[in-house]
Amino acid sequence: MLKIKLTGKWQVKDSKDKYHIDANVPGCIHTDLLNAGLIEDPYYRDNENKLQWISDKKWIYTRDFEVPSDVYKSKRIMLNCQGLDTFSSININGRKIAETDNMFRDFFFDIKPFIRTGSNSIEIAFHPVLPYISKNQKQRHLHCWMDFKGSGYVRKEPCNFGWDWGPKLITCGIWKDIEIIAYNTARIDDCLLKQRHGRKKVKLEIDTEIEKVSRKSTSLEVVVKYKNKTIASNTCAFSGKRCRLSVTIENPKLWWPNGLGKQPLYDVSIRLKDALGYCIDELVKRIGLRKLELRQKPDKHGVSFEFAANGKPFFAKGANWIPADSFANRVTRENYYDLLQSAVDANMNMLRVWGGGIYEDDVFYDICDQLGICVWQDFMFACATYPTYDKPFVESFSTEAEDNIKRLRHHPSIALWCGNNELEMGLVGDQWSDTCMDWGDYSSLFDKVLPKIVAKHDPQRQYWPSSPHTPAGDRTVHNCPNSGDAHLWDVWHGMEPFEWFHQAKHRFVSEFGFQSFPEPATVDSYANKQDHNIASLVMDHHQRSLRGNARIMAYMLDWFKMPDGFENTLWLSQILQALCIKTAVEHFRRQMPRCMGTLYWQLNDCWPVASWSSVDYFGRYKALHWAATKFYAPVLVSAIQQKNDHTAVYLSSDLNEQKTVKLVWELFTTTGQRVTSGNKMVKIGPHKSLCVNRVDFTGYIKQFGRGELILNIKAFSGKKVLSHNTHLFCQPKYMNLQKPNLNVEIRKVDEYSQEAIITTDVPALWVWVKTDQSDAKYSDNFFDVFPREQQRVLIRCTGKQSIIKASNADVRSLTSLSRPAHNNKANKTRLRAIVKHS
Asked: Of 80, 104, 131, 287, which is most buried, counting CB atoms within 10 Å of its CB?
């Protein structure tokens, strides 16, 4: 097989030839215009509003390419377009070969009649989608919960049209690879790998479909390697268009989700050979050997909803994933790895690829395989009604679904295929209207067409029609606490207090969240000094949730004293967000096994913005992400105040084995006095949650007052701290918190790493360290420090500077945010740069 890559440099112009510039493929028109200096940064201030003209134009991409004689002489010559966004017409040498209308399709076109030996030209014109939407909206109104209506008519990234966390930047262009492939005998068209797990062995069944262009005999060879060593192989000669064979892997090493085991990966090579034994085509699939299933069984609460790996159920700990950039071509392998590693660092084992974005790049799933992150994969439908009554629309989507299932199904990380996001939450009704579609048209796609496609092309993986979905009882009652998954937005959208979560008894919470502002460095990337007011035009522009900034401030005043100034408001919003999600996750982990998963909204951002993310657009951890490293720990200690005012202490374990844990608690006053303490040895079984102690502090509450007490709780295994938590007896705004005297010692670890050792004289809540180096990485932040204990933070810089050369750092705690600073040094602790190796 011969290939001609068509990625790289192209030219792009508009239909009136006003703009004529270099273009990059893969890419999009916005980044091409930005690279050419013709537009300003769409993410800065309100520049987005000035760039809406881009989506009104027709954009034409062109380039020349050479066809060698050996390629031209091939019997079959195909153009493979892996991603065209969205309405396009393709011409080669001035002759039209095809039109496309689906961003998510993988297109193959026979171009042999259109090319010649030597120099050739290709032109791909992208037509604006808005006129098409407007025309169809006049015939039938399609609703969307976001501002732009009618986007359901086009198979395009839904959040391109704007979302409640993202900009309206309607892209077009060649957004994935494009190439020419030529062959004479045959090529591998499709390959399905199925696993049959037995005692100390796994049988791999390989079902391969071949496109043949000659009658010459062929054979198929399968080779399985582990760490570059061949461990199994088989060969089969065949004459038709399909070949089935199998190999057996003895003593298999099983793939596990993060935290439950390792992630060994096997390379499976499927080689198509001609009659002389030469390899004429090859596919290589990297797989993991595992059984990963969704279990739903009747129980005393209704019907369970739990994922199990290799027969062992586990609590799904994770978040929702949105596109990592509004311009997909800008997301690099390093970007993917950093974000996914941040999920692992927070002890996550699952991410939900949300249905309003894109089917992610292969690199995303490769890294999930390596890191043990299970993927709940939505199909791309979200928060809107769709023309599922239209045959061409259904046919286009059906092929889209087939393309992406075939591309992704070999990944061990894929846990579930889900039909859509939130259509069953009020977008389906008894009949069509301006706000909903009818159940018949909805069901025809999501209950009939789509599950059949999944069953045919990925028979060993389950399908879930919608998120949320109620499988038992009345389907129209979404967020049922007895079965299915739930999206809980009573806190935030419903303005319920954080304590509302304590009454929730849902089986699996696949969405819930709370917003915060990004940190000052991120805000400075899109706002100038005159914008530094929460109510400024630019701060409102970078807040897309209805009354979002007002909601943050309203909740903030429920919990905290008024922050002092703009920057402190940004930081305090992050602490508020972390407190909310911590409250929810700890509750749901205490509910295990009734609840078996929490995926908070959301892990990441597509641009710098106030949002629900725990990691901002630049990869900076918010307080929430640091909190997630603790509330998603394998063993969690948490506490809750009961109706009789006793304090119930819980242990929640995700470990595969029973654990003996020493529980230690200390009750402090806000001035640093330890008034009582205790400890208890407890055993907790694998994947269990239980109340291990109830402590009566009512006497101390009467003596000192709720605002004067703080409970410090730790769970030990030997000398190792498994979990560390703090329990408050009232909102922090009512507490008599003292300003801590934070003492920080710096010890050099190596050339680019140092350890900060922090101590305090009084309880210090939500302590964090920031250096003046943008590339600094921290082992922990936003933690609590108590008297007579040390908090150690490893700080590493990968750049040229080391922290020793800039030994001033900003070390803050909760109390520094609401107390006026007389000068810039008031909130800083000067670090003593003690240069010695640990």
From this structure: 104
